[in-house]
Write a structure and sequence with these properties.
heterodimer, A: 215 residues, alpha/beta, two-stranded antiparallel sheet, globular, B: alpha/beta, Double Stranded RNA Binding Domain, 6-stranded mixed sheet, two-stranded antiparallel ribbon, 4 helices, flat
Chain lengths: 215, 184
């Protein structure tokens, strides 16, 4: 019975909002030479009101869920998980420290002091500097996810998530995946976009992982 | 009534995917901290570290190993006072340890240190909530070679978060599921 209700609900939802589909562009002759890549955090840009890129400005959301600080908080975990399932080994820019921090522990309580006022991790660098770091770590490609929010008719905005695998040496993309969806909220839609892009990558690079088998 | 309740609680079966990569000797591993940094993610990391340790793998804990020689200052203050023949006293101890651990060092130093320690594999745990109706939790455990970052094994588990379950419980179950698949 529950399955029937769920199926009906899914059909109703499908009438309202079609699932997004991924557009994948693979550039011929530009296959990456290594599966180990530097992954940047998702950045957001908009052609409309700049506050649209701040999830907290979208007003009160369902339940007691805290509004994420950025859309990357919702997109990155799901996207990176699928990219790793597709075979990439990700070096996360946000976890790569540029300088050594100092640590002081007093009676077991720990405190970290950052070395300078400048960028602390690779995630805070511009693209060219991030490329230089990638080169120094023998990473040949950089994954760049970007969410673009734009007006899509009266009272509506759409979100487009584009993920490009860019060659470090030439700055040319190996492939690009894009998904677009009307933005209804700050959790569901970004999450659907992340899964859509992830599935797009899986479909092209590791199709055997697209459909799981039951335990 | 029982049947209705059972239908309400019914969940889709879990989904598991396993990939096997290049063969490798796994002996000394480093567990990279989860990207989310929450207590839940730290707990899942510890869960995986404990299980790997139990299975005989040597775990390199970046937060416990000193990057350089650290400075330790210990101050012990003992006092006593006598007032109208009543003696009172006490002591206070302050231990300050200064210096970075391996989790604080820059990426180039960390890479060299791990190589010097003979770390042969890197383990990464990921978990994510899939929004929708019903909500699902997915977890991935991935083991790669330290020298060339090639995948040794990878497993993903995905399951529904039930009516009476929390995301935390779901994340715990999916991580255990993925870990069991990787270790199989």
């Amino acid at each position: 019975m529950n399955r029937v209700v769920q199926l009906a609900a899914m059909l109703c939802a499908a009438c309202v909002q079609r699932p997004p589909h991924a557009t994948v562009i693979v550039h011929e002759g530009r296959a990456p030479t290594s599966h180990a890549v530097l992954v940047m955090p998702t950045t957001c840009m908009t052609y409309a009101d700049v506050s649209l890129c701040r999830p907290a400005s979208w007003g009160s959301q369902e339940g007691t869920l805290r509004a994420p600080a950025s859309f990357g908080e919702v997109i990155d975990p799901a996207l990176r998980l699928k990219l790793e399932l597709a075979g990439f080994t990700l070096a996360e820019a946000g976890a790569l420290r540029l300088g050594t921090a100092d640590r002081v522990e007093v009676n077991g309580e720990s405190r970290v002091t950052e070395p300078t006022e400048g960028p602390r991790t690779v995630a805070e660098l511009g693209f060219d500097d991030a490329r230089a770091v990638a080169r120094s770590l023998a990473l040949t490609s950089v994954l760049v996810p970007r969410l673009t929010i734009r007006p899509a008719g009266p009272g509506e905005v759409s979100g487009e998530l584009t993920v490009a695998l860019v060659d470090v040496a030439t700055s040319q993309p190996h492939w690009t995946v894009r998904c677009q969806e009307t933005m209804y909220d700050i959790y569901d839609t970004p999450n659907r976009l992340a899964n859509c892009v992830g599935n797009g990558v899986l479909a092209v690079l590791a199709p055997e992982n697209l459909i799981g088998r039951a335990l | 009534m029982v049947l209705v309740a059972a239908c309400t609680l019914e969940k889709m079966p879990p989904i598991a995917m396993v990939r096997t990569g290049v063969p490798a000797q796994v002996h000394r591993v480093v567990l990279l901290p989860s990207e989310c940094g929450t207590q839940l993610c730290k707990g899942l990391d510890q869960l995986v570290a404990a299980e790997l340790s139990f299975r005989g793998y040597e775990i390199v804990d970046l937060e416990r190993l000193n990057a350089i020689e650290r400075q330790r200052i210990e101050v012990q203050v003992t006092w006593s006072a006598s007032n109208n023949g009543v003696v009172s006293g006490g002591s206070e101890r302050r231990v300050e340890v200064r210096g970075p651990t391996l989790s604080d060092v820059d990426i180039w130093t960390l890479r060299d240190e791990l190589k010097a320690m003979g770390v042969d594999s890197v383990v990464r745990v990921r978990s994510a909530l899939v929004f929708g109706k019903p909500q699902r939790v997915v977890a991935l455990v991935r083991v790669t070679r330290a020298d060339d970052a090639r995948m040794i094994a990878s497993a993903l588990c995905e399951l529904e978060v039930g009516t009476f379950d929390t995301f935390q419980e779901g994340a715990d179950r999916t991580t255990r599921c993925a870990l069991a698949k990787v270790l199989r």
